[in-house]
Write a structure and sequence with these properties.
Helix content is 38%, strand content 20%. The strands form two sheets. The protein has a six-stranded mixed β-sheet, sandwiched between helices. Strands 9-8-7-10-11-12 form a six-stranded parallel β-sheet, with helices on both faces. By secondary structure, it is α/β, with parallel strands linked by helices. The model has no long low-confidence stretch (mean pLDDT 97). Helix 5 packs across helix 9. Bound molecules: 2'-monophosphoadenosine-5'-diphosphate. 2'-monophosphoadenosine-5'-diphosphate binds next to helix 6.
């Protein structure tokens, strides 16, 4: 029987992770079966226990369970500890890791060809998504990393935990140029864009939305301003490749998978 893995979340039916891992498995000759598990909001630990009992070897964890997964793992990586969130569980040694940050950095640098070293990057939002990538962004050699949030105190709390991060409110943005602007808010899910000042997004900006599978008002606004606008599909594929490596010890090529998902 194939080794079993899954993505666990709520909702999770929209996830492209099963398709991504199926392609990784084919390309690397790894015999795995990767499914999708929707756990009840109060039933994460039970769902994990059931999956393990049914022969599961590990799983990806998505919203809203990354914090639960962090609490469940007996041992976590340093990057997961910093993020206070786990998106990858390996059951045999109850190990938890977080591959979101490295996934974003690899997508930007390797797939988008953006050299982050010496650049100014702005993250919009200070929730779980921002917390998951702040550590990896800090490690990428940026000249400046600003986190802006509607509720300033949340950005300030994040900056305290990640020395080097500068916290701001949206009203303080506008004068400064950012090479890359990453939308880590959940505003797009409600059909909204964070309140950005005129001129923040322009021909010299890469506007990146961590969400995939939908065109957000943030991306539409970026395109209208002449910015390069990209969704989070590449991040999904890159974080998946790192998870696959943690489970299988084999690093799959990501380019062909991303090209196929983008239909090019
Ligand atoms: P997640 O885990 O997806 O990051 P979260 O922890 O609830 O979810 O955080 C959501 C983020 O999106 C927060 O930064 C939130 O801003 P506040 O902290 O001020 O609430 C941000 N957000 C959600 N809707 C927004 C909107 N319409 N405009 C700007 N920011 C928004």
């Amino acid at each position: 029987m194939s080794d079993r893995y899954a993505v666990i979340g709520n909702p999770v039916a929209h996830s492209k992770s099963p398709a991504v891992h199926a392609q990784f498995a084919r390309a690397t000759g790894q015999d795995i079966d990767y499914g999708c598990i929707e756990a009840p909001l109060d039933g994460f630990a039970d769902a994990i226990a059931r999956f393990r009992a049914a022969g599961g070897k590990g799983c990806n964890v998505t919203l809203p369970f990354k914090r639960d997964a962090f609490n469940l793992a007996q041992r976590v990586s340093e990057r997961a500890r910093l993020a206070q969130a786990v998106n990858t569980l390996r059951f045999e040694d109850s190990f938890g890791d977080n591959t979101d940050g490295i996934g974003l950095v690899r997508d930007l640098t390797e797939n988008m060809g953006v050299a982050l070293h010496g650049r100014a990057l702005l993250v919009l939002g200070a929730g779980g998504a921002a917390q998951g990538v702040a550590g990896a962004l800090l490690g990428a050699g940026l000249r400046r990393l600003v986190i802006a949030n509607r509720t300033l105190s949340r950005a300030q709390a994040l900056a305290k935990r990640f020395p080097g991060v500068i916290a701001q409110g949206y009203d303080a943005l506008g004068a400064e140029h950012f090479d890359v602007v990453v939308n880590a808010t959940s505003a797009g899910l409600a059909g909204e864009s964070p309140p950005l000042p005129e001129g923040l997004l322009n021909e010299n900006t890469l506007a990146y939305d961590m969400v995939y599978g939908r065109d957000t008002p943030f991306l539409a606004r970026a395109r209208a301003a002449g910015a390069r606008a990209v969704d989070g599909l590449g991040m999904l594929v890159e974080q998946a490749a790192e998870s696959f490596f943690i489970w299988r010890g084999v690093r799959p090529a990501t380019r062909p998978v991303l090209a196929k998902l983008r239909g090019s």
